[in-house]
Amino acid sequence: MISRPIKEGFRGVGRHWGMALSSAIAVTITLTIISIFLVFSWHLRVFTKNIEYSMKIAVIVDEKYENEAAEEKIRSQIEQVEGVKAVEFSSKEAEFQYYLDQYDDAAMREVMAPFGDDNPMNDAFYVEVEDGDLIEVISSQIREIDGVEKVDYGGQTTVDVVSAMETIRRVGVIFVAALSILAIFLIQNTIKLTISARQDEITIMRNVGATNGFIRAPFVWEGMIIGFLGSLLPIALTIWGYMALYQHTQGIVFSALFNLEKPIPFSLYISGILALIGIVVGYIGSWLSVTKYLRWKR
Amino acid sequence: MIECTHVYKKYKNGTNALYDINISVEQGEFIYIIGPTGSGKSTLIKLLDGEEVPTKGVVKVVGIDVGSLRASQVPIYRRNIGVVFQDYRLLPTKTVFENITYALEVIKMKKPQVRARAKEVMGVVGLGEKGNAFPHELSGGQQQRVAIARAIANRPKVLIADEPTGNLDPGKSDEIMALLERINKRYGTTILMVTHDLTLVNKHRKRTVVLEHGHIVADLAEGGYVRHDQ
Ligand SMILES: Nc1ncnc2c1ncn2[C@@H]1O[C@H](COP(=O)(O)OP(=O)(O)OP(=O)(O)O)[C@@H](O)[C@H]1O
Ligand SMILES: [Mg+2]
What we know:
Chain A is α+β, with helices and mostly antiparallel strands. Chain A folds into 2 domains: 3-51 and 160-294, no CATH class; 56-153, 2-Layer Sandwich (Alpha-Beta Plaits), CATH 3.30.70. Chain A has 10 helices and 4 strands. In chain A, strands 2-3-1-4 form a 4-stranded antiparallel sheet. In chain A, α1 (4-15) packs across α9 and α9 (212-249) packs antiparallel against α10 (263-294). Chain B is of the alpha/beta class. The A-B interface holds A 4, 200-201, 203-212, 214, 297-298 and B 49-53, 69, 71-72, 74-79, 83, 89-91, 102-103, 105-108, 150, 154. The complex binds adenosine-5'-triphosphate (ATP) and magnesium ion. Adenosine-5'-triphosphate is lined by residues 11, 13, 15, 17, 35, 37-43 of chain B.
C-alpha cells in the first residue's frame, strides 16, 4: 500500500498536470544540458589527466657532459627538483633509433641509418612531472642545471589547451549550478499553484490540528515526482546518445589520449546522477514553496 | 476551561480589535458572544484557536496558555478544541463520511477508531443516512451539521463556533441550536458561539457576552439582550 503523502503527491501532479508538465519540461531541459556537461567534463578530466601524464620534459645533455659520472650528477639534480615524479635515461643511440623509427618508409630508414655512425644525437633524460600545471616551472629549474644543453616539453600549446579546457569545465560547473537553481525556481512556482488550489484544504487541515510536517509531505512528494519525471527523458537521451557516440567514434576522439568511457556502466552512473539531481531539485523547490507558505501561519 | 485576562489585540496594520477582555468560562458552559460587525468577535475566536497572538494579556484554554505556544505546537493544541465557521469549510471532493474521517486521519488516529467515531458523530448530528453524499448535494443546514460532526469527532473539550447560523434561515438556525445544545448536554462540551442573530439569542437564552468596538460592554448571566439604542 502506498502511503497517503505519496498518493496525494501523485494526485497533485495529476490535478495540475499542465503546470506539472511544464516544470517537468524545465527540469528535462536543465538535466539534458547537465548531462552533456557531465559527460563532457568527466572526459575532460580524463583527457587532462592523460595529457598531463604523457607530458614529459626532454632534457638534452651537453656533449661535454656525456659520461657516466657527470650524467649521474645531472640525474640526481633533476630528481631533487620539486614536482618531479620520475627520470628516465635515454642514450644517444636510443635517441637515434627513435628518430629512425619516425620514418614509415623502410627505404628512407636505410638512407638515414649510416648517419648513426657519427651520431648527431645527444644523451637525454625524460622527466615525468606530478602535475601538468608545474611543467613550465620545473623546466626552467632544470634548464639551470650544469651540463643541460636544452630543455623541451610538449610545448606551450599543450599547456594552454589543458588550461583552456579546465576553464571550460569550471564555467560548466557554474552553468550547471545556475540551471539547477532555475529548475528549483520553476518547481517552486508549480507547487505554489498547487498550494493555492488546495488552500481551503490546508486551512481545514490546520483547523483540525494537522502539523506543518503533515501538511508539507504531499507537496514535497509532488515536487520530487515532478523532478523524477523530468529526469526520465534526459536519462533516455543520455543512454541512447552516449551509446551512439561511442559506436560512432569507436570510443576514440581526436587521439588515443582521448578515450571514451565504456557506455555501461558510465551512462548508467550519469543516469543515476541525473535522477538524483531531478529529485533533489524537486524536493528543494517544493520544500521552499510550502515553507514559505506556512511560515507565517499559526 | 476558557480564561481571558486583560487581553488586548492590536493587528500589525495598527487596528485595535480588542481592549482589556476578561472572560471566564466554566467546563460545560454554553455562552454567546454577540456584537455589531467589526466589534472583535472573530478576533476573539482567533485568539482562542491560536491563529492570532494577544498583544497583551493571557488567553488560557483547557489550561494551555495559547498565546505563548510556538507555531509548531499550535496544531497539537488545536486537537483539544473544535472549530466551526459560518462557511462550513467542507472539502467539496470528499463525501460526508470522508470529510469527517479526514479530520481524524490528519491527526493520525487509528483506522478502526476513525470509522467508529465518524459513524457515531454522523448519528449525533442526524446525518446517519448521508454518509455517501457530497457537500454540494446537501442543504446549508446539513452542511453545517457535517462541519459540526467533524469538529466534535475528536471529542474536544471546547467547541468554538463563529456565526454557525450566519448563512441559515431561522428554521434551520433553530435546528443547529438544538444540535449544539444536545452536544453540550451529551458530551459536556464547553461551547462558545459567536452570533449576530439576536432573535436566536433571545429565544435560546444563555450567558451572553456583548462586544462593542473591542470592549466587553455586558456579560449577562441570564442571557437575552436588548439593544440599548432601542
Ligand atoms: N487580519 C486582520 N488584520 C488587520 N485588521 C483586522 C484583521 N482581522 C480583523 N481586523 C480588524 O479588527 C476589527 C475586528 O474584526 P473582527 O473580524 O474581529 O470583527 P467581527 O466582530 O468578527 O465582525 P463581523 O461581525 O463582521 O464578523 C475590525 O476593525 C477589522 O477590520
Ligand atoms: Mg467575524
